[in-house]
């Protein structure tokens, strides 16, 4: 997870293509402080872009081909013709994200130019920190800049989401791509996923974010994710709504026993999570750790019991962090679930205690090896 500098990127590109790049773009991953599986239900989320990113160095070509090298996949190279129908590539599945973005940009009548692209990054893959959204947003930025076309950050996020929904096959919401495109330094972003409005929420200066990879590789994520989305849609349809945003918690509770139990619990998570996210945003902006920690703890319980997306090791990791924080740290699973990472936020003076507790207890208790990932809230996609 080393951070590359601009000269290293130029050197990697020159080694792959024999000349210097014309541009370099960067798009961050993200950590979601609270608001899980609410985005595709038109709800509220509170993510922060983090200082782990995808970088793309690029230069224009005179033809209609993209030559793309993935440095982190053994410098595997693919050639994609911009005018040919996009098809998935089982031998280079990472390139499906590139192909999906091309398809969506072409639908929106971007002309695009051929080019040479070198892709690399340090967002941990499979950790629930949105390496895929980071890649999608970076590709959007690189391709539009190569063709001297402009795109609004929110539109860039929508292109990335559509690529993942329509081409890659994961029915994700908008959160990951939107925070990668619109993130702000030292702040989280409260996103209303119904109308895509955002509000910057400053993180207190002496607070820090600690992400801990559980060492549990995320399994069956896309199939389970799509299943959860379908269950939420079933619950919304019961109330003649397109999404759960149109359902009040009181309505849902009154329907207990009428709606099937699984759909009821999935919907209860979403509706209570929306309320917790709004509470957490106010607590974060005012430095109210007690309220924030309680909201994050309740979020984790809801993900465990109502949404069924945690694992025993993840649950233990959250417990270790909450105990070590002793009311001065919020902790919960973050990401789509079934493994991956836990996020904690606390005053800087508390972070060492959290790290020590994880190192002391977690592997002994679970057999899983944790990875500690200190993170800072960072700005969204930009050109170097």
How would you sum up this structure, described in words?
- There is one protein chain.
- This protein is α+β, with helices and mostly antiparallel strands and 384 residues long.
- The protein is globular and about 60 Å long.
- Helix 2 (95-107) crosses helix 3, helix 3 (131-146) packs across helix 5 (175-182) and helix 8 runs antiparallel to helix 9.
- The strands form two sheets. Strands 1, 2, 3, 4, 5, 6, 7 and 12 form an eight-stranded mixed sheet that branches. A four-stranded antiparallel sheet has the order 9-10-8-11.
- The chain is built from eleven helices and twelve strands.
- 42% of the residues lie in helices and 22% in strands.
- It has helices spanning 6-17, 95-107, 131-146, 153-168, 175-182, 221-238, 249-254, 261-286, 289-305, 312-325, 351-366, and strands at residues 23-34, 44-60, 65-70, 76-81, 115-121, 187-192, 197-202, 207-213, 330-334, 341-347, 371-375, 382-383.
Helix content: 40-55%
| Poorly predicted tracts of residues | none
| Count of alpha/pi helices | 11
Kindly state the number of beta strands: 12
| Whole-number mean pLDDT | 95
Instruction: Spell out the helices and strands N to C.
Output: HEEEEHEHHHEEEHHHHHEEHEE
Spatial extent as radius of gyration: 21 Å
- Label the structural class: alpha+beta
Largest sheet: 8 strands, mixed
How far apart lie the N and C ends?
A: 19 Å
């Amino acid at each position: 997870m080393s951070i590359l500098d601009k000269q290293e990127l130029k050197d990697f590109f020159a080694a792959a293509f024999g000349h210097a790049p014309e541009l370099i773009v960067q798009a961050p991953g993200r950590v979601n402080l609270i608001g899980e599986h609410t985005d595709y239900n038109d709800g509220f989320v509170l993510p922060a872009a983090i200082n782990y990113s995808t970088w793309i160095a690029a230069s224009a070509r005179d033809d209609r081909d993209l030559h793309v090298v993935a440095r982190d996949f053994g410098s595997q190279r693919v050639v994609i013709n911009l005018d040919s129908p996009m098809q998935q590539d089982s031998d280079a599945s990472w390139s499906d994200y590139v192909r999906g973005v091309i398809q969506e940009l072409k639908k929106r009548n971007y002309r695009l130019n051929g080019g040479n692209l070198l892709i690399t990054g340090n967002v941990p893959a499979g950790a629930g920190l949105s390496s895929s959204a980071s890649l999608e947003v970076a590709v959007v930025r690189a391709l539009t800049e190569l063709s001297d076309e402009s795109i609004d950050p929110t539109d860039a996020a929508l292109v990335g989401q559509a690529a993942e929904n329509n081409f890659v096959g994961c029915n994700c919401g908008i959160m990951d791509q939107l925070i990668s495109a619109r993130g702000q330094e030292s702040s989280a972003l409260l996103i209303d996923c119904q109308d895509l409005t955002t509000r910057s929420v400053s993180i207190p200066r002496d607070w820090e974010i600690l992400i801990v990879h559980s060492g549990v590789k995320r399994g069956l994520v896309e199939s389970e994710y799509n299943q959860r989305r379908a269950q939420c849609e079933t619950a919304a349809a019961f109330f003649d709504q397109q999404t759960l945003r149109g359902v009040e918690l009181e309505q849902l509770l009154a329907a207990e026993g009428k709606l099937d139990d699984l759909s009821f619990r999935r919907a209860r998570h979403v509706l209570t999570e929306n309320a917790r996210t709004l509470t957490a945003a106010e607590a974060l902006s005012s430095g109210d750790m007690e309220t924030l920690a309680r909201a994050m703890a309740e979020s984790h319980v809801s993900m465990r019991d109502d949404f069924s997306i945690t694992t025993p090791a993840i649950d233990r990791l959250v417990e270790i962090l909450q105990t070590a924080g002793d009311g001065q740290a919020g902790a919960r699973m973050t990401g789509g679930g079934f493994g991956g990472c836990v996020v904690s936020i606390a005053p800087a003076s508390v972070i060492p205690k959290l790290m020590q507790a994880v190192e002391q207890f977690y592997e002994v208790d679970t057999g899983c090896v944790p990875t500690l990932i200190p993170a800072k809230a960072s700005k969204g996609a930009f050109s170097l």
